[in-house]
Amino acid sequence: MTTALITGTTAGIGAAFAGRLAADGHNLVLVARDEKRLREQAADLHDRHGVEADVLVADLSEDDGIAAVEARLRDRTHPVDLLVNNAGFGNRDRYLEVPITDELRMLKLHCEAVLRLTSAGAETMRSRGRGGVINVASIAAFFPRGTYGASKAWVVQFTQGAAKDLASAGVRMMALCPGFVRTEFHARAGIKRESVPSWLWLDADRLVTAALKDFARGKSLSIPDPRYKAMTGLAKLAPRSAISTLSSKVGRPPAK
Q1: 152 touches 103 (CB < 8 A)
Q2: Which residue intervals of the chain are DSSP H helices?
Q3: Which residues are the signal sequence here (predicted)?
Q4: pLDDT per residue as tens digits for the range 205-234
Q5: Quick count: other Cβ atoms within 10 Å of Cβ 24?
Q6: Taking a C-beta distance cutoff of 8 angstroms, is the pair 92, 251 a contact?
């Protein structure tokens, strides 16, 4: 039986990945900061699907947390076959309205942690000649939106480049770019649902189903919804200044 390690797994897209992969018969390693929620989730998935669900408590915006997950990914006696780097957070405020400590924490989590965990996982997978990594980015990667958009653009570029480098080694890699998904993510970021047009909201379970289909097809980039695919295409054609203005307004309060 194969094993999947998922970060940021207690809610939202991470929880949807955990539920779907458990239903498909994968054993799991669940990674998040909240031990109570992790253990409740692990017990539920084990009871419902009969899979093993290990718990790894780690804050991936801290070196110790990243190192703990790196060590698990390098364990060749209990190898991880699929890594889903999903942990992340957002800020609704504009540049210079967000404390620099939060900006640096975001870069640590979205970029350094993704690089280090992908490297640890992919190295072991390459030695076995098989495995896969899904790095959760965002549709914001294609739109100017401060540190969040910039960090997710890095995830996309890094993942697609690494996918080409590892293709001949049997390791598949894909960047997943969701849009606005009905999860705790936006509430934690202070983004009110009514500030985002209703037609932009996606369902986490459907998103994961589409993403896994794209991954099975060998895609290195997944934008799993026709609406967001169309928006990304238009973004390439529209004036950059107009795209920047629109992106800076969606889900944010009026400028001060």
Answers
A1: no
A2: 12-23, 35-49, 63-73, 100-107, 113-128, 146-166, 185-188, 204-216, 226-237, 240-249
A3: none
A4: 999 999 999 999 999 999 988 888 888 887
A5: 12
A6: yes
Q: What is the DSSP letter of 108?
A: I
244, 142 Cβ separation under 8 angstroms: no
Q: Does the pLDDT value for residue 200 go beyond 90?
A: no
Q: Tokens at residue 119, please?
A: 């490297």
pLDDT, tens digit, 9 for 90 and up, residues 82-95:
999 999 998 878 88
d(CA 59, CA 88): 11
Examine the residue annotation and report whether 148 is marked as an active-site residue of this protein: yes
Q: State the pTM of this model.
A: 0.88
Give 9's Cβ-side CA count (13 Å radius).
Answer: 33
Instruction: Specify whether the CB–CB gap between 82 and 62 falls below 8 A.
Output: no
Q: Which amino acid is at 51?
A: V
Tokens representing residue 89 in the block: 């957070």
Q: Please check the confidence at residue 102 and state whether its pLDDT lies above 90.
A: yes
Q: Which amino acid is at 255?
A: A
Q: Are 121 and 80 in contact (CB under 8 A)?
A: yes
Are 106 and 150 spatial neighbours (Cβ–Cβ below 8 Å)? no
Task: Note the pLDDT tens digit of each residue in 153-192.
Answer: 999 999 999 999 999 999 999 999 998 887 655 555 555 5
Catalytic residue among 148, 158, 180, 185: 148
Distance separating alpha carbons of residues 157 and 102, to the nearest angstrom: 23
The burial of 248, by beta-carbon neighbours within 10 Å (0-12 exposed, 13-18 middle, 19 or more buried), is given as: middle
Tell how far CA 233 is from the center of its chain: 22
